[in-house]
Design brief:
9 helices; about 50% helix; Rossmann fold
């Protein structure tokens, strides 16, 4: 049975594409560029959430997944990654590292991480996320990741998604929320959830 992503818009497409490659990732068949993945696009499109979900699907064990904000990726951390590079996971098949907001990596660590990315072990996969365009990243990072560009979801798709998720909220209200949030799915969900809270409160108070 084909995989059906729970995400909408391009996020769902990226989800399905990468999941189709999981067997090859786990077998070590893919070259380093295929294991250095960058999610780039506006905020609110579940880039970080998707990276986390895919990381756990790939790693084979939760202890193999490491999450870091870009600001935490300093020289000492990258050198620790370099020192541990020869060692395979004890559990599961792969280590997966998530670097959220990769554009915030300190300049002092850029040279170190370049070396790590260039000699990435076959048993390591890296997901990086950014709200910026790839060309706005440090030149060292621009060519070292396979880029998946995320896009704002069309208003009609957001409204349809909200209608399925929040059936108690009037469709006209959800359509208005979808328009106002302009493709930011996270903001749309937050607004719809808040509106649902108001509806339920009024029902209890009646």
């Amino acid at each position: 049975m084909p995989y059906i992503s729970p995400y909408i818009g391009r996020t769902g497409l990226v989800d399905a594409v990468i999941r189709s490659k999981i067997p090859m990732l786990q077998s070590g068949q893919l070259e380093p560029l295929e294991r250095r993945l960058l999610f780039s696009g506006p905020p609110g499109l579940a880039k970080t959430e998707l990276a986390d979900q895919l990381a756990h699907a790939i790693a084979g064990h939760p202890l193999n997944v490491e999450f870091r904000m870009g600001t935490q990726v300093n020289v000492e951390l990258v050198r620790d990654w370099l020192r541990s590079a020869p060692y395979r996971p004890i559990f599961g098949g792969l280590f997966v590292k998530i670097i959220d907001e990769v554009d915030t990596i300190p300049p002092t660590a850029i040279t170190e991480i370049r070396q790590y990315l260039d000699f990435l072990p076959r048993w390591v996969v890296i997901f990086a996320t950014t709200n910026k365009l790839p060309n706005d990243l440090a030149p060292t990072l621009q060519t070292r990741f396979k880029v998946y560009k995320f896009q704002g979801v069309p208003t009609s798709q957001v409204a349809e998604y909200l209608t399925r998720r929040f059936p108690e909220v009037p469709p006209a209200v959800l359509a208005d929320i979808a328009t106002q949030t302009a493709g930011n799915v996270r903001a749309a969900i937050t607004d719809a959830s808040a509106h649902l809270d108001v509806i339920r409160f009024k029902q209890l108070a009646a």
